[in-house]
Amino acid sequence: VQLQAYGGGLVQAGDSLRLSCAASGRTFSNDAVGWFRQAPGKEREFVAAITWSGGGAYYADSVKGRFTLSRDNAKKTVYLQMDSLKPEDTALYYCGTWLAGSAGYDYWGQGTLVTVSS
Q1: Strand 112-117 relative to strand 9-12: parallel, antiparallel, unpaired?
Q2: What angle do CA 102, 20, 69 make, to 5 degrees?
Q3: Cα–Cα distance between 88 and 65 in angstroms, integer?
Q4: Which position has the higher pLDDT, 31 or 93?
Q5: What pLDDT shows up at residue 29?
Q6: How far is CA 19 from the centre of its chain?
Q7: Which of 57, 99, 104, 116 is the most exposed place for a label (fewest CB within 10 A)?
Q8: How far apart are CA 18 and CA 39, in angstroms?
């Protein structure tokens, strides 16, 4: 499985961005794709996750109500729509995949940088 994340950029507070995570290889229905972020000087934190079946989407409290996950199975792409961005959302955003039956996230894409200016 290979993942490629893109869509980051420099925006102002209150703006929106949509990140994409394109997968190649296995995308079974119960596999999950998650977004994580790491701000300078901080540990990586969970942002959101969704299964390819779309059976459930999970969000960190810090982004709930502002970020929305969606997926296009035909394109093997998961999108993270980020609205009402705040300066504290500034981070390097990564996507990873948790293969069904495994103990955690198995594969990671490279990060895409999101910078939100105040």
Answers
A1: parallel
A2: 70
A3: 15
A4: 93
A5: 81
A6: 7
A7: 104
A8: 18
